[in-house]
Amino acid sequence: MSAKQLLFGYNDPLVLAAHFVFPKHLKPNTNMGLLLGRNGTLEETHTINTGRDDMSKFGLIERLNGRETLPMWKEPPCNSISASEGTFFPPRTYTGSDRLAVYDKDLCRIMPLVRKGSDTVSGIPTDLYVTDENYYNPEAKENTCFCSEGASGLECPPKGLQDITPCQYGKISKKTNSEAS
Predict the structure, then answer these.
(1) What angle do CA 168, 7, 3 make, to 5 degrees?
(2) Which residue from 129, 153, 154, 164 lies 20 to 30 Å from 54 (Cα-Cα)?
(3) Is residue 143 exposed (0-12), middle (13-18) or buried (19+ Cβ within 10 Å)?
(4) How far apart are alpha carbons 61 and 46 in whole angstroms?
(5) What string of H, E and C letters represents the secondary structure of the chain?
(6) Would you give the distance in Å from CA 109 to the centre of its chain?
(7) Between the CA of residue 2 and those of 33, 40, 81, what are the distances in Å?
(8) What is the distance in angstroms between the CA of the first residue and the CA of the last residue of the chain?
(9) Sign of the CA dihedral 163, 168, 174, 177?
(10) pTM
(11) Partners of 125 in the β-ladder
């Protein structure tokens, strides 16, 4: 397929089959595309720390649509939003185990990044960060809160996968007046 199809949509038999099987409120698009349905605008309102009182919090998301935690995940660390939105980070001193945290809006979770090394590109010092090795490991303690309660107890997806249904179909609504008080 062409790059245009991959990015902006193509007919996929599996997605089409899901469209007929899923309940009406959970139906996916009839096409598959990495950028399908995205126009570059954000649906959420981010409240981001300026670092005025504490530079170690500069650029970290404090609230998303008025909420201090993500409503689709019941407990920490899964419901935390205290991370960068990815374009700027608090000033830091590099150590051998330097870590960053970026909020991934498509997965509704924080992506922990670990510094793997450094390089120089066109005379500019750069750093390489990779996802933490336990990022998609349901057996890791910090990920069990992404599992769902099923008929036979806690049900977790296989290693390398995450059920994003609560994220994609349970959009983060704005905090209501009754929740605010």
Answers:
(1) 160
(2) 129
(3) buried
(4) 7
(5) CCHHHHHHCEECHHHHHHHHHCCHHHCCCCEECCCCCCCCCCCCCEEECCCCCCHHHCCEEEEECCECECCCCCCCCCCECCCECCCCCCCCCCCCCCEEEEEECCCCEEEEEEEEEEEEECCEEEEEEEECCCCCCCCCHHHHHHCEEECCEEECCCCCCCCCHHHHHCCCCCCCHHHHC
(6) 4
(7) 11, 22, 36
(8) 52
(9) negative
(10) 0.70
(11) 120
Compute the distance between CA of residue 101 and CA of residue 103 in angstroms, rounded to an integer: 7
Nearest one of 38, 85, 76, 79 to 166, comparing CA atoms:
79
Q: How many angstroms separate the CA atoms of 24 and 164, rounded? A: 17
What's the residue count for the chain? Answer: 181
Domain spans of the chain?
1-39, 42-173
Q: Which residue has the tokens 């590109």?
A: 121
Listed as own residue / partner, the contacts of 139-148 with beta carbons closer than 8 Å and 24 or more positions apart are: 142/77, 143/78, 145/73, 145/74, 145/75, 145/76, 145/77, 145/78, 145/79, 146/73, 146/78, 146/109
At 114-167, the pLDDT tens digits run 988 888 999 998 888 899 888 989 889 888 888 887 767 778 888 888 888 888
Residue at token pair 């991959």:
6
